[in-house]
Batch of 3 targets.
Target 1
Amino acid sequence: MTLPGFATVKRDGIELTGSVTLTIPIELKVGELQETVTVTGASPVVDVQNTRRETVISADAIQALPATRAYGSLLNAMPGVTVDNNGLAATPTMTFFSAHGGRTNEGRMSINGMTVAAAFNGGGVSSLTYDTTNVEEVAMLVSGGLGENETGGPTMNLVPKSGGNKFSGQLFFNTAGDWSRGDNIDDALRDIGITKGPGIKSSYDASGSLGGPITRDRLWFFGSYRKYTTTTGVEGIGANKYAGDASHWDYLRDDSVEPRLVQGRDIWSARGTAQVTPRNRVTFSHEKQSRCEGSTLTPSGQGCRTRGADWIGLGATTRSPEADTGYFDFPYWVTQATWTSPMTSHLLLEAGYSRFAYRHAGGPGQVPPDGVLDLIPVTEQSAIDGHRANFVYRGLGTYSNNFGNPNSWRASASYVTGAHNMKAGYQGSYLVADSEFDTNVSQLAYRFLNHVPNQFTYRLPAFQTADRTKVAALFVQDTWTRNQLTLQAALRYDQASSFSPAEHNGTTQTSRFNAAPITLARTDGVSAYRDISPRFGLAYDVFGNGKTALKFNIGRYLAPATNDTIYTRNNPANGIVGYNITPINRSWTDTNGNYIVDCDILNPAQQVVPGGDSCGAVTGNSLNFGKPGTSTRVNPGLLKGWGVRPADSQWGINLQQELMPRVSLEVGYNRRYRGKRSYDPLLCVEANSAFLWDVELRRGDAGTWAGRGAARGQLRDLRNRLRSCAHQLLAGRRRHRERAYQGESDAPGRHDHRARDQRHVRNHREGRQPGPEELSRGRSGRDDASRPGVVHDPQAGRAGQRHRAVAAADHLQEQQRHNLYWQRANAACDDPGPGRRIHERAQHGGPEHPRASSARPTVAGHRSTCGSRKSSGSAAGARMSASISKTC
């Protein structure tokens, strides 16, 4: 640091990691212009200006960790992060993680600040082997993210190496095998079929990297290559001696061939960095991974890995190798480009694009190149012939061939002065998910019981589903520092939508089960979710020396928008009956013992073929084979709007203290509040209420049974409902605290609704109101004497007063609810819709809950009842839920 008339001061050893902001105390002294003072000291470890919870691991620390070179091992070093299966694995694999009680799959992986993950299942991680060895650092954001973060879960960001003006590189190799393991196999385990242990049989991991200048100070490169393979034994599995033999419908275990789990990858990557102008830098990188797991079925098969004479890389505890989809030969591609431009000493512009594409099979693998697809697979229900119950052998029934392509991009502008830092930006993503469900040649599968056929299954051929989800977001965040106090605030706007394209939906193939292709039109899913999410943070340098910081953060965060849940619910392909997820199972007796279904499979009636077989009738939804069946259709009013997308709120308070140079201690408390559990923002319900009404909302009238349309959300209705919700929520929480203090439980799902509902019907028949003794039983349908922790002595001081107050409130509320119930039921007598059916069931003593009724209308000419509903958040009053779907 220099200033005219003062001595020059230099401070060495400063390390900036992640998004940390460090305070460097420097004192300028009057001196000669030529005088230079160099101060050497440890880098500060307390960030007194950022409220986000972030942990950073440098490249040196990663290399020193005695763990598998996978991101799952690094997750275990992150405080506050919950890791699925503790991140332990013999080889790099997909690992889920979360924080502060979030969903198991809420954690996200990103490279250069852009998400690189699957296009579905939360879009957080994938089966890609993330390169954690060739990075400058790994930053884990646990909580307290500002406008740049869409969700409130943890995010691990990898910052790759990019080369420099000096040539540098590294080589790595490790290995393990039978010589480095043991097992506990004894005679008792051998007697039950376990002859091999699950330990590592062989393993190696080799890699190399090199980086340096192409043109000094202008152009640099960095490249790496990695190859690893791990082979482990699999216990309790045997090969089939009759595999591939069409004359055999039985299984004979062959222990001379050892099933193994074999996993491996070939990974190469290249990265170039160019300083185009003094103020413009661009980077481009490309990575390809070839995933090879399992092996061919025969020693002469051609694939990414050929099996040996005495081992095979296929098989599972419930599947013989010839019936197993344990073969993987999938590519992965990651392509990224970034641009950085410091326009002035205060203004920084950034932009980036990321493309991730990969083939997968939705969890299991695919058929090996020499797999058995021309033989009908058999599922044996009995544990015989040396295998377990429900064991599949003889051939492969189905397999998947899927494609995922998540794309993301970002652009931002940062204005930094020190005391005032502002950032505004744009983020977007487009997620592609295509699935294909293939069958064997016959499209059939058999089920046996003690070698006797009793059922067959048939499916549609090569059926496809396709989904697309789009997200766009704008954000602005600002940081102000005044003396020892730093304030942070952010505002984020998100818009999410989805659709199902016409292509890659249905099947273009024909077969004996479908004479014509199945084509489907383009269908919108979520038309537009719009949300504004505020975030706020406060950091205080307690003593002003940069060694003690008190931090607080609070914000609203959204659930991920990916190709699943409500975003794909309207895809018409999901409703077609007969593909891999909805096969047709039909009872069958092979009377003539020829292992051929002699019935007319497409004839749904029960059949007895003279001199042949007998087949059971096809019933229910299976009658719609090859056509749309009973499916869920979401109410269009719940697929768009402001604040409809699920979200939660989080807040946290943390204290960070420097104990000694390079060592700090942080203690914090974080709380997460779940947002509404449904997609209807207008309906306020009580989660602990005794009733669960399924109603259809009519504009301006949220409490009638006759309403036909969904809520339109006029401002007046919205204002009235929100005001009502606020009053009911406060009353409900006060009442909940009183009951909790007395030891009672209002947890949903713990009440005997049937007993209570029967009391309502009985009271109505007898023309009487329920008495206080009956009402005092509360929502559980039991006498309060059976509830532990409830004070019943009216003279027992304050506890008795509280008990009387709660009992009186319950009495009044139960009377009001009882009267309201029959008032609504009677008012619905003339309504031929759901209200009429509820009233009729109540009059005859039947179940009045709408879900208990058939999905078919009881009055001709009227539509079916609504099913598959969800309730929204909690408040006091009668519990209701919006009709969000229909059973068609």
Target 2
Amino acid sequence: MIDARGTAEHGRLEEADGSGVPWRKWGPYLSERQWGTVREDYSSNGDAWHYFTHDHARSRAYRWGEDGLAGFSDDHQRLCFSLALWNGKDEILKERLFGLANSEGNHGEDVKEIYYYLDSTPTHSYMRWLYRYPQSAFPYFELVHVNGGRSRHELEYELVDTGVFDADRYFDVQVEYAKATPEDILIRVTLTNRGREAAPIHVLPTLLFRNTWSWGDEVLRPRLARVEARRGLSAIAAEHDELGPRWLYCEGRPELLFTENDTNDERISGTPNRSPFVKDAFHAFVVHGKHDAVNPARDGTKAAALYRLDLPAGGSAVLRLRLSDVAPGDVADPFAAFDRTLSARKAEADEFYRAITPPSLSADQANVMREALAGLLWSKQYYNLDVDRWLSEHGVFPWVIQAPSIRNHEWFHMVNHDVISMPDKWEYPWYAAWDLAFHCIALASVDLSFAQQQLELMLQQMYLHPSGQIPAYEWNFSDVNPPVHAWATIFNYRMQVALHGEGDLAFLRRAFGKLVTNFLWWVNRKDRHGKNVFEGGFLGLDNIGVFDRSAPLPTGGHLEQADGTAWMAFFCQCMVDIAVELAADDESYDDMAAKFAEHFLWIAAAINREGADGMWDEEDGFYYDVLRLPDGGSTRLKVRSVIGLLPLCATTVLEPWQREHVPHTMRVLSERLKRMPHLSRSIHPGGRGELGHDARAIASLVNGERLQRILSRMLDETEFLSPFGIRSLSRFHADHPYSFWAEGQEYRVGYLPADSDSGMFGGNSNWRGPIWFPLNVLIIRALLQYYGYYGDEFLVECPTGSGRRMNLFEVAREISDRLQRIFLLDERGRRPVYGGSAKLQDDSLFRDHVLFYEYFNGDNGAGVGASHQTGWTALVAPLMQLFAELDARKALDLGNLGAKAHPPRVREEVAQRIAGDAGGAPLH
């Protein structure tokens, strides 16, 4: 990691973390979709999408949060700023992003807009967002109708397919935020007519208070009101008992509109409104010309500055606003230093990204890295939910003996009111615990402190279940996410050491105690028979398996999951890693290291059990789930998927200094293997004391011979190895689908490169064959761990059948390069991520801004699923950053990956650094 301290932005981070200066108080914390969420669902059947629809969103006050275009708010979402637009033709005011509900699309829910997160610093001192707004009527009905008529075998019908961007008939709407001080926000909106004819546009920068006063509490209603400002300006005063006074200054004397952020009951339920001024007043005023819809007294809880613009062909207009704690009487001209300050913040953002971007990256790579991290930072959202209160509002009281069927009733302890990194603020505007762990790996590149805070959040009493379970996601907090939190924790700690020379041991101790609780939950709840083989349901892999693994099996019985068992072995390794770090300061943790090291042995013995009923298939050289039948029989479910690759991910190198810190653990392991020598057959030889390169040991489920066999499949381009990374299902199953019959019904798994044709989980849970970043990154990590043990001596053919031999560092580098290739311009000047879309590929205004999808077509690299899941897909940034350490350290020719091109020690150190949790000395 390049030591980038010393930039202005790093100074702000130090002020925020060291002195409590609230540089992070204001940020992009609005959701992009509050409608259709579980929080807002008060239906009797749990159908959140149909209970609170996009059509209702403009008229119904939200209960738990707010949404908006380019949304910006304080960290408790009390006062919110966003944009509204109208092109003179739309049937509704454009106040929020449109997309399909779960039942409307042929591949589930999906946002149907074009927008980009172009820039953000970690303190949000500078941010830039771009939206493409059609000049013709937005095709709401067409998008719903066409997608609803398509089958799962057809592509989604996207906004660019409707023709609304033909002849460039659209506006570019760019929003920039810059902080003059932590409480003084400059806002610049630049509108550009990309078309060949003049076109009108109405722009409504909107300020509103989240509705906290309608739910039976004694809450003071805040107030927005027009105030006098100097000539050439309009101003709105905001009064809130917690925030204190604020003012929104609007240049150019726009018309100020006011209403209340209250439900239009008359439209929603047919009952009289309590006030004539309701949430959708601006829609009524602008679109329908109802001037009596807004408050003539010019006050309320929602306000907008209405700009009516006519833009010539190719012309632009700039609107300047300032949301500030500086009162009108204390500033002669609110915009006197506006452009200078905004330009300075943009320059400081450039400086920050130059400092963290390795110089060896091309301009295209640097842009992809920056936009990936910007998207990650824009995806923060204030998440608010008091489950006990939510349940009581549904008439469910957990302390009363009953059998409630309502969602999440067992999570009554949970109170969430924090800024959290979201997977995607439209498609997944709720946190997902295992997604968040991967976010924190990427966040560590730009804001290590925020990443640590996010990791601790999930382990706090208001999140972690009393049983020890980490919450999954709001549709079902009790679902089971893979246990990757411990890995993200030790990664974060080691990043601290690498950057600052020491890590936060107090953080590590706090996390370790809670992670022990979580580990025990897994052992007690997901090891059905106490045999150290684990279940857990879908474990993040959705419908990649034969059955819905979260539901009762059609055969009866249960599954012994190769992935669930491997995840737990990896959990053990990470807990040993953490305990070793703590034992260096407190020798009592040596006992805990021994506990988890022994548990790793039990799990290794279970997953590597020999015989016809074990998970390892000697004939195929691969791991499979085992179906245990009620009559005592068993069968392997021989689907070649990432389920069978996960055992190689449970691999961690142990440095000599680490072993020295835990002498008790080493004695326990030695004694255990003497007493139970059969355990030695279940682990890598290095775990028995046979040392590898530089006297390293290794904890791994997969020995060298099995590793060769698994990699021969994984690196086979007719199986797992795509031009764009590792597929989640072997391409072998395209021509040889796996079929299983139960109770007269066939259950079938066939390779599909993008969306699945199975609706097993509904929504966008359609993984069968695509590439997705989380497991690719874990595979890369594992290869680097193996490389740390074997060095240059262990070679494999890559790709299989090519005759080209690589060490495991080079294999990891090859996979990383293929993943990066998804986003980069190829030799034809096209980005694979945009597939066959002519507009996205051929128009540089579209092509040269990058979207970071949920997963990617296994054959051509095209983006699939959520289009702004920059959470875990932002992992492309640290991959670029960390592999490019070779250049930062003045290694030789980047293109030559041979052993002679890069000194072995450099490769080893970079391997340790990228792996993140290897025990070697940190790079500075």
Target 3
Amino acid sequence: MLLGLLTAASWLRTRDRSRRFLALSILALSAVGILLSLNILSHGRYQAITDADIVLFLASGYAFLEFRNVIVPLNPPVRWGALAAAVTAAALVVVAGLPIDAALSPLQVIAVLVFSAVWLACMVEPIVRLWSLSRVLPVVQRSRLLSITVAYAGVLVVLLISVAATLVLGGSHLEVTVSIPAVLILPLFSVGYAPPTWLCRYWRQREEEPLREAFNDLLLYAPDRQTLAQRSAEWAARLVGADGAVVATADGEVLAVHGIDRSAAWEIVRDSVTPDTEEARSLPSPPRNVLRVPLESQLGRGVMAVKAGPLTPLFGEDEIARLYQYGSALTTALDRGLLVERMRRNVELLDLAYDAIVTWSVRTGVITFWNHTAEELYGWSQAEALGMEPTELLRTVTPKPRDEIMEELHRANRWEGELVQTTKDGRRIDVSARWALQTDALGWPDTVLEINRDITAAKQAAGQVRDARDEAQAASAAKSEYLSRMSHELRTPLTAILGYSDLLELREPRDDQNEAIAAIQEASGHLLSLVNDVLDIARIESGRESFSLEPVPLYQVVQECVRLVAPSAVERSIHLSTELDGSSKEHILADRQRLIQALLNLLSNAVKYSGRGARVQVRAEPRGLKRLRICVIDTGPGLSEEARSRLFQPFERLGAERTTVQGTGLGLALTKKLVEGMEGEVGVSSEPGRGSTFWIELERAPAALHARRGRREDGTGPASSLPQRTVLYVEDNLATIGLMESVFAMRPNIHLITAMQGGLTLELAREHRPDLVVLDLHLPDIPGDEVLKRLRSDPRTARIPVVMCSADATERQKARLLEAGAYEYLTKPVKVQRFLRMLDEVLSTPVVRAR
């Protein structure tokens, strides 16, 4: 009973999983002794006590086998086979019902033999295995393991004597297992499981002195910190009879382990080296059978920990005192090894740096360290540089007096700037320098650390980088502007789609046509929502344009363009004429609206740049049998060869931006694109002082394709019933212009003038004084809001109502333009009925008040 209580108390203090089976085996044997004593006192009247006794005896044997499995693992089939055999033997004994003091039946004899064989199988192999293992263990573990194996061997001998007496003398003589073990065997169990301190000290005396001598030698001759830590961990485990040990630094580096793997070693020292944070406090606690000793050295903190195993005694005051003494000695050795190793590593790291690193003494002013990069940068070897004064060696030129630099260095402990230094071969290099001041233990300046980097190439490239950055920013701004315009262009075609569907709806279509119109409007509405999602994916340089080539009468196109620019020509006293001769009845293959736009750009440029009193003529010239050239000839100042090479480029105005002539340089670039889209060519011939000739060359239309195209009119009422009005419609999209021509045809009393550029809009507005201007916000040369501003600032056009029309549907944009003086703001695509109501409202107002 005493053995059981001592064993249970010892295990409950640590709850060590590795010694759990050994404790269970000893407790089972103690229980066997108690139950057998009760059975003898009761003269065997209780068979259940006998059965329980035998089962517990078998359980003690199997628990000892499991303890062996903890020390030296068994093969799984062997382990499970032993468990099955123990359960079978226990069941057979219970069924046979062994008496405490009576003759045995044959079945009971067989049960005794099976029981004995199973128990012996569970005990003999572990006893032999652990006995052989004890020879290579430290003295404490070896002595404890020998005590345990001798104790179980004694139980084995007692069992054999008891079984032999039972078989020879008859009856059961198990009472021998109570009297003899109580006197001879139980003390061995106590010594093996939890030996007293004095006994552990006695066991250790034989190897303590050799360990100390070896450790003293290591303190003096340790090759490096790693070797010192590895041997220290091994000797710490041997010193206190532990199964494993670990040495780690405070930053979490495990220096050495002995007897355990590194993951288990980290679990042992984790909370000793982990900062005291909420996360660290939430980690699991280390095992209870671990003894840790802090290592406080001058260069850092650390920890040494030892872990008890199945054969390790509980750590008491003696073990703790020994380990702390050992840790104190180890600290000194680690300080020396760590200091030497850190110095070596620092030198290696400084040599690996990409920057030149130089140190010099404040007191003597001479160089004390010169790394490998400094050798490569300056050309001086370390042997040549050490002991030299750095300013004289490198002929350093500082950005300000050296005394001021040193004053700032002493005040702030650092200085940064750029130096000019000279290499060994005489090259002058620009250096980015960072200096740091190190003080001694008393706080006096001691050493200056210089970190220098060659920036010669970087400074030379700085100008190129700045130029490239400015160019990239300009390109980005141009791209952003173009994207904004393209986002407008994506929504503008929807104006034509929805507008034409509205026109069809107003002309009393049939029911089946109503369904088609509704489908168009529904699909267009869906497309409108999709367009809003793909505005940022505008095709900037795709070059895809839609052109509708058809026979176009040359005479009508030329006359319409001349009529539109005539007011501007008269204002500048320019003589404007045409010379078509035999080509007046010719037709050319072109897109009518885009041909008008291209020719109008050439005529407008001729009028603007030829100068007051010049002559501008439109002439048609056959070019072979299949092509026709339309020339715009002026008597202006002409163009040099260099200027002609820059024509037709976007935003290129050839210096006109410094004059009072307004423009953006987009007209000719747009003209070239339009003409090439119509499978034609555009060019120029000019000489300085002799004028210029801009020409467009297109294919002639075959005579069989000539057809008259009449203008369709919608008789919504007699033209004479309403007063005649003039509307200037400004839009850069030809499809939208075509739609508006059809819409305005529903108001025969309105004379429609169209324009595709902001500059031309201002000229037409001043000349024709329209009753209304419908103005697009995105135009190729001048933004619509700028056109509105100029119209409002000119007394001649200030009272003309201006309706803005744009695909930008934001309230901020609408409020801004209304504040700027717009009469109304329409968002594309606009319904035809809404547009007509706006026309009727504006044009029916008798007096238009300027805003």
